[in-house]
Design brief:
The protein has 395 residues and is an alpha+beta fold. The protein has 3 domains: 120 residues; 87 residues, Orthogonal Bundle (Helix Hairpins); 149 residues, 2-Layer Sandwich (Heat Shock Protein 90), CATH 3.30.565. Helix content is 58%, strand content 11%. A 5-stranded mixed β-sheet has the order 2-4-5-7-6. Strand 6 and strand 7 form a beta hairpin. The longest helix has 68 residues. The chain is elongated, with a radius of gyration of 42 Å. The N terminus and C terminus are likely disordered.
Length: 395
């Protein structure tokens, strides 16, 4: 749940402004109340408004009667003065309560006005991602603290754009440049093996080197896919069936499945669809299937299923095996992270499989969940935004 007033700074400004208004109002009302407390200490009968002075007859009784009357009038005036003070106090408290509400309202209005440029900067910054780093805030107005902040953010975006472009260029150029010497090495190996009656050691060495060259080539290909998924744009978005991609991946790995005598439980459905780059999504599914096969035990099992909700299309790949620690499993989306202490990994493994899966899922605004099964093995769930079927009916 969000904060009741939208943010801590907004709440602080509101309380600050309201406290200032309320404090000023309290002091003003207190001064008015104190100044209105002047009491009349002397009173003559002729000084009473609306009263006609009476003639005091001669004699002591008449004088005592007049003094008593003056005391009665003074007491009445004191009571009236006390009532007026009470009404003034009540009125002041009511005015103070009203002013408290008005102060909160004015404080919130002023806080909104002060923070409005910051909210605009925040909203514009959130809309900028790796795909549109060329955009700038370009805040207009007087040179103040807010404009300095916006200009600083624009400078940061410019440096990030240069860095991202340089990174993409470096990864692409390095991968392509490294493929040239790799191709030369393969050609040299083929020439050495093609000679008449090559030595057995030469043939064995060529086989080992060719396997390592294939592994390096696979690693370079993984770097390219990872760079594209993390920093590239998805211009080739199209509706894609996760079920069809899963069946294609299983068909391509039939020999590897048979070599390990794995039991595959296929529960995929073709109507579970998402929208995105078909090439990247197929690589995602391939890596999930490869991870389930390569890191499985002999005569183990693999369960692949697809499911959908109103908003998500999910691909679930489960395997059996030994019990893993969830803390280790959570790190598998990082490049070159593997379960256990073996840094070389199984044959043909580049250590980029699940990190590529995570990058592709993130590029498609999805989420990846890795869970160590309590009874052993791993459960991998790729949840992507759902797409409508080709017949226009929602899945």
């Amino acid at each position: 749940m969000g904060k009741p007033w939208g943010g801590t700074v907004r709440r602080r400004f509101t309380i600050l402004y309201a406290g200032g208004f309320l404090g000023s109002g309290t002091v003003l009302l207190a001064l008015i109340y104190l100044m209105s407390g002047t009491r009349v200490t002397t009173l003559a009968p002729e000084g009473i408004p609306g009263q006609v002075p009476e003639q005091v007859p001669a004699g002591r009784s008449d004088l005592a009667s007049a003094e008593q009357r003056i005391r009665d009038l003074g007491r009445q005036l004191s009571e009236v003065h006390a009532q007026q003070n009470h009404r003034l106090l009540v009125g002041s408290l009511i005015a103070l309560a009203v002013m408290a509400g008005v102060s909160l309202l004015l404080g919130r209005i002023l806080a909104d006005r002060v923070l409005r440029p910051l909210r605009l900067i925040t909203a514009a910054t959130r809309r900028i991602s790796a795909e549109n780093l060329y955009q700038r805030l370009a805040v207009a107005g007087p040179v103040d603290e807010v404009k300095e902040l916006a200009d600083t953010v624009d400078g940061l975006l410019e440096r990030l754009e240069v860095s991202f472009v340089a990174q993409r260029r470096f990864v692409g150029n390095a991968s392509h440049e490294l493929r040239t010497p790799l191709a030369t090495m393969r050609a040299s190996l083929d020439v050495a093996v093609a000679k008449p009656e090559p030595a057995a050691q030469t043939v064995a060495l060529a086989g080992r080197l060719r396997a390592e060259l294939d592994r390096v080539d696979h690693l370079l290909d993984g770097f390219l896919v990872l760079a594209r998924a993390q920093h590239g744009t998805l211009a080739d978005r199209t509706p894609v069936s996760l079920g069809e991609l899963a069946r294609r991946a299983l068909t391509a790995r039939t020999a590897d499945i048979a070599a390990k005598a794995l039991t595959v439980d296929d529960e995929v459905r073709a109507n579970v669809r998402t929208e995105g780059s078909e090439a990247l999504l197929f690589r995602m599914v391939e890596n999930m299937v490869d991870n389930a096969i390569v890191h499985n035990q002999e005569s183990g099992w693999v369960r692949i299923s697809t499911e959908h909700t109103a908003t998500e299309a999910r691909l679930v790949v489960e395997t059996g095996g030994r019990i893993f620690d969830q803390d280790q499993v959570d790190r598998l989306t990082q490049p070159f992270e593997r379960l256990g202490t073996d840094r070389t990994g199984p044959e043909g493994s580049s250590g980029l499989g699940l990190s590529i899966v995570a990058a592709i899922v993130a590029a498609h605004d999805g989420r990846l969940a890795l869970q160590a099964r309590p009874e052993g093995g791993l459960r991998v769930v790729a949840a992507l935004p759902s797409a409508a079927r080709s017949d226009g009916v929602a899945p």
